[in-house]
Design goal:
Two copies of one chain form a homodimer. Chain A is of the alpha+beta class and 279 residues long. Chain A is built from nine helices and twelve strands.
Chain lengths: 279, 279
């Protein structure tokens, strides 16, 4: 339908509430189990052919390992322009979003004829090999409030979802290096993630997701002081909040953070997965 | 988030381009393979507790077998009010949409704590046992332009998708009884459906989906005269159209039907699957 040779895709943000790590020799089978929320705040990626490869986010030149891998795999020389509603490196899955959005936009701009599952496999594999994420891409391709029951990209990964929608607020205090946490000892974290998943599967509701996420953040030892303080302030006001994995970010249902005196960004859970946009 | 004890869900319409029938003793494993488009025109379903069971579409009292089965399975006495953008029985998957929307809205109104996959299993099984559909529910839960690679509800069914979006036009000439076609001899139809799926998997694009669908409609012997004439008129104008399975309905990409002189309804492919709505 587009007359110019370009492509554009929107990929929702994704905050993970809890997860466990699942390693495999095959990057497509590697990933995480867990659950989180996809967000109407996300990343829009536009790709067009160019003589030289370039990747920008909000106009700033960047180098994002999984995006470079996607472009390498598709043998593409192009200009990738991403616009993000979300801070980078703060637990919103922006690296996965740019990688998946790039794969989808390239597929359209360069007529590559790949299916959605093939694009998800590509972006997921690029994230895993780069050590930047384990479950954001499959969650972002799904949309809604995904529960990742089996790790990995299609056909291995298997998802369910919490059938709900909500207004979401969030505040960010800064970055947390995903690579550092994921390359360290993850057994304690994964054991806590498996317990959280069992609790959510038993009752797949939004309040249970928040409760399981808070317990996970505590048990995994990832809470920083300002994150802990914000979560407690929301709880004291009768609200529901937890920490975005992996970032120094707190997300809350409804008006939880506002009620607690914070000045949060506001969005909603996103009903759809990543989608091609018309230009 | 809702203060009243009610629930509301929106389920997109779904036109199937081609399919093959897959029978099993287990209704959850029974279903169809194939592909189609989910539509922004769909069905909104509201459920609230009541002393007596009632189901209405656009205010008219109806009895829809799969909806009755869903209410029976959930042991619910309630008022089900559906509003449909789409004609009933014309190939838009409205029976599946009302069944899935009812399951989702009941889950919310009556705090049943079922997951999305469990709701899809319930509505899919109800459709299969009623003989009213084989693949609409799983497609409508997925959204976008779903390719049903393996038949049945989760965890058996397996979907891929065409990563695209489009303006869609449609005209309807009347009903075609799904039950009659599905209860008849389906081997010729299924063989044509399997060929169409192979062709689409080879090149998962929207033009290929339309081409494979047209060939299927011809080979399966389901074309009626007015449907054939509309598809040919769109083709002569350089457009892409096919027949909605199973209904006397023609759907076209872009402005295909308008260009051919018809006065079609207009919508778009729907980016999301069925979603809970806030009230």
């Amino acid at each position: 339908m587009s007359d110019s040779r370009s492509g554009r895709a929107f990929v929702p943000g994704h905050v993970t509430g809890f997860f466990s790590v699942h390693e495999d020799d095959d990057p497509i089978r590697t990933g995480s189990r867990g659950a989180g929320l996809t967000l109407t705040d996300g990343v829009s990626v536009r790709v067009e052919p160019a003589d030289e490869r370039s990747v920008t986010i909000d106009g700033r030149r960047v180098e994002i390992a999984p995006v470079e891998r996607v472009l390498d795999a598709l043998s593409v020389t192009g200009r990738v322009e991403a616009e993000s509603d979300l801070p980078i490196g703060a637990g919103f899955g922006t690296s996965g979003a740019v990688a998946l959005g790039t794969a989808m936009a390239v597929n359209r701009a360069f007529d590559r004829h790949l299916s959605m599952n093939e694009l998800v496999r590509l972006a997921h594999g690029a994230e895993v090999l780069s050590g930047t994420g384990l479950g954001d891409v499959v969650a972002q391709a799904h949309g809604g409030i995904p529960i990742r029951l089996e790790a990995g990209a299609p056909p291995h990964g298997f998802l369910d979802a919490v059938p709900a929608t909500a207004r979401i607020e969030y505040v960010t205090f800064g970055e947390l290096a995903t690579e550092e946490v994921l390359s360290g000892e993850t057994e304690t974290l994964s054991a806590a993630g498996r317990r959280a998943l069992s609790a959510l599967v038993e009752e797949p509701t939004l309040p249970r997701l928040m409760l399981a996420s808070r317990r996970f953040a505590r048990e995994a030892g990832l809470l920083t002081d300002e994150v802990r303080a914000a979560i407690e302030a929301v709880s004291e006001g009768g609200g529901e909040a937890s920490m975005a994995m992996l970032g120094r970010t707190v997300f809350a249902l409804g008006t939880g953070l506002t009620d607690a005196g914070y000045d949060p960004a506001v969005c909603r859970t996103h009903p759809a997965g990543a989608t091609i946009e018309t230009e």
